[in-house]
Write a structure and sequence with these properties.
CATH superfamily: Aldolase class I
Radius of gyration: 16 Å
CATH class: Alpha Beta
Number of helices: 8
Shape: globular
CATH topology: TIM Barrel
Distance between the termini: 12 Å
Structural class: alpha/beta
Bound molecules: D-xylitol-5-phosphate, zinc ion
Order of helices and strands: EHEHEHEHEEHEHEHH
CATH architecture: Alpha-Beta Barrel
Number of strands: 8
Largest sheet: 8 strands, parallel, barrel
């Protein structure tokens, strides 16, 4: 499977976001990963649809919007209108019925649906969701902040999921050149990466290392 690199702008300089976006675009990123946090599902607050709308204007790359928020069903519409290409919700925040409704809405707009699970949530919790989604996002840190250390138990989850799931498997948190290799070997094909890319002196080299 082709490896895709999703640059997580959580570690970007938000005072010059357009410049940061074009920097990672020129360096070869495949996707822009946008971390949306509500201070409720996770202990941090980031950005909402109004900012995503301007991110959409500032890059040609597809927007991979990671919703770390309670009641995502109330907000997916706004993120679709803002220009999202992929939207991920957390299994900890939705019922299967809500997920199915969200999926139908996204399909009408050609937006892909992903399901994510926290490090402490077992793979069994997403089994029934798998037929409803286009991809799975495995969290390899507890969501909320960039720059945290990779939690190795994510590797087993990726391996077990890859054995039963043929679509895209994304992984998010603590990915660098070393952990990146491990998650690819385990079967992940989309790498969401923040601090390793935005903290690098040479952005292109960092992205090439990941690939
Ligand atoms: C964590 C976010 C991640 C984060 C990754 O809650 O979902 O996307 O930005 O950052 P790094 O790559 O620094 O762990
Ligand atoms: Zn994320």
């Amino acid at each position: 499977m082709k490896i895709k690199i999703a640059a997580s702008i959580l570690s970007a300089d938000f005072s010059c976001l357009a410049r940061e976006l074009s920097k990672v675009e020129r360096a070869g990123a495949d996707l822009i990963h946008v971390d949306v946090m509500d201070g409720h599902f996770v202990p941090n607050i980031t950005i909402g649809p109004v900012v995503v709308k301007y991110i959409r204007k500032s890059t040609k790359l597809p927007l991979d919007v990671h919703l770390m928020i309670a009641s995502p069903e109330k907000y997916v519409g706004a993120f679709v209108n803002a220009g999202s290409d992929m939207i991920t919700v957390h299994i900890e925040t939705v019922t299967l019925k809500q997920l199915s409704t969200i999926g139908k809405g996204l399909k009408r707009h050609g937006v892909k649906l992903g399901i994510s699970l926290n490090p402490g949530t077992s793979l069994a919790k997403i089994k029934k969701a798998l037929p409803l989604v286009d991809f799975v996002l495995i969290m390899s840190v507890n969501p909320g902040f960039g720059g945290q250390a990779f939690i190795p138990s994510a590797l087993n989850k990726i391996r077990q999921l890859r054995a039963i799931f043929k679509k895209d498997i994304a992984v998010d948190g603590g990915i660098n050149n070393i952990t990146g290799r491990l998650v690819k070997e385990a079967g992940a094909n989309i790498l969401a990466v923040g601090s390793y890319i935005f903290g690098a002196k040479n952005t292109k080299k960092a992205i090439n290392n990941l690939r």
